[in-house]
Amino acid sequence: MSPAHDDSTGTSTMDADANTPSPSHEPVHMQTPALNEHMTPKPEAAEKIFELTDVSVRYSGKLAVKDVTVGIGTKQITALIGASGCGKSTLLRCLNRMNDLIPGATVDGSVKYRGQDLYASNVDPVQVRKRIGMVFQKPNPFPKSIYDNIAFGPRVLGMNKDRNLDEIVENALTRASLWDEVKDRLDESAIGMSGGQQQRLCIARTIATNPQVILMDEPCSALDPISTSRIEDLMNELKEQFTIVVVTHNMQQAARVSDMTAYFTVEVAEDDKRYGRLVEFAETETIFTNPSDQRTEDYVTGKVG
Amino acid sequence: MSQAGAVKAKADATASVFARSRPRYGELVIRASLVIAALITVLTTVGIVFALASETISFLGEVPLHDFLFGTTWSPLFEPPSYGVIPLVTGTLLTTAIGMIVGIPLGVGSAIYLSEYATSRTRKFFKPILETLAGVPTVVFGYFALTVVTPWLRKIGIEVDAFNALSGGLVIGILIVPTIASISEDALSAVPQGLREASFGLGAGRFQTSLRVVVPAAFSGIIASIVLGASRAIGETMVVLLAAGQRPNLTLDVREPVETMATFIAATGKGDIPTGSLDYKTIFAVGALLFVMTFILNIISTWVVNRYREEYE
Q: B109 pLDDT exceeds 70?
């Protein structure tokens, strides 16, 4: 089988390669044998990739989220849920230092990624974002061709020097289950795609840079139910290889896709200022069936929010 | 009251809900004055083109088109006169080219700095300054070129004449920086923040994001700013009149004096040539050529913008 590919430069082994990570990937992408030998490990027991301790974020001095302590497991999906203004997106953006782009944003406490403090003075946020990619609420493809959208990250990171760019593009689109839909129009503008396709393109674009973690900030809130369900399927496939942290307003989505769930709430301080707090962090099943906090129960059963 | 009357009254009452109570004179007046404003602009342009064309045709009745466009000596006031416009064209292109070489990097560079790097406080400080620069009369720039830039060029070892193309061109470059910077900055700032976040999220740095995402997305606006700058540079009169001299000189040596098309028009127009004479008509012929050049520039830029634009919505 040889795929129709406009930009293909000769024969390649794309098909063999399409669904499995190539050997040139960083070793961390390989399946850990020890993990497979166990029955099904409890999500709680997973090795932690992020350790957050007493993290508070302020925007120009105004508290947005206070004292969050949480550990995020490797190769699982962690959902952050809660009402608007509870600080879940703010917290997500701490994980790859995206908050740096907002003037006046400050982060207190410690955010450790594989034991390394992301906010240490010698850390380059650009290097952080190379390993921790992000998918946004509103699909934001570049106003370039579909091919150039996927190729952007690899080009910027210089990945195309040792691997064929066409191969990277096909591989990423295939893993985002978008290849069959777009393989004949790779040179068309991504702006002409539907919203759901654009969002899968944005996921493919992130996959192409081979990150360790993918942060998703309400990735389906602008999409119809069918596109949403495709993205959820995709997330389930991707967690084989990536750690995913997803912010969502949709509780069913959190229940469907995530292994662990963190519930946040809005607290009102004495001076009437509002800020977010973590109420409960547990296995998703526990959060939705047997939460330990009354506020969590009220939220997941639909009594509030 | 009869039944028929009652029905009629009811019908009237229903109609009156939507009926116009009285003609809206105010609206008519506003609309008419807006139409007049638009018409005056169009008619002025038509009038200019017509005036240029009629005098130019009359000029070309006395001087063959070929001699005008391809002649290499411009000496309309000498005996025997020669009407080859090439020296004026090269003079114009020379000072414009120098101006663009200075103006594009400075203008686009400051736009990228203001839009992508500067904090909002710095931006609030710099933008008004830039716009003030745009308001400085060009005659001031002209004397700046003549009395500051030319001596300065000599000091650093460039043997320029008292009047020279280099000094005029450099100052034209500074003159068009605000035009290019201001319009480019608007175009860059209009690029959605989501595109920048997408780029940063993929591990691109600020410079890569600016160059590979923001600038391409704002490309049509940047080109528009450059074309506007180029049009200003081509038509710029006072700076070159004061700094580059008035010698129709067929040269590419930037140290020598040159005369541009706009300079010729201004200097000859203020002289005492009689209306309707051939010398008088030369002004219009050169003006028409200048008009055609800027017009072609606009067409090329429209083509470039349509060919390379990246629409982000």
A: yes
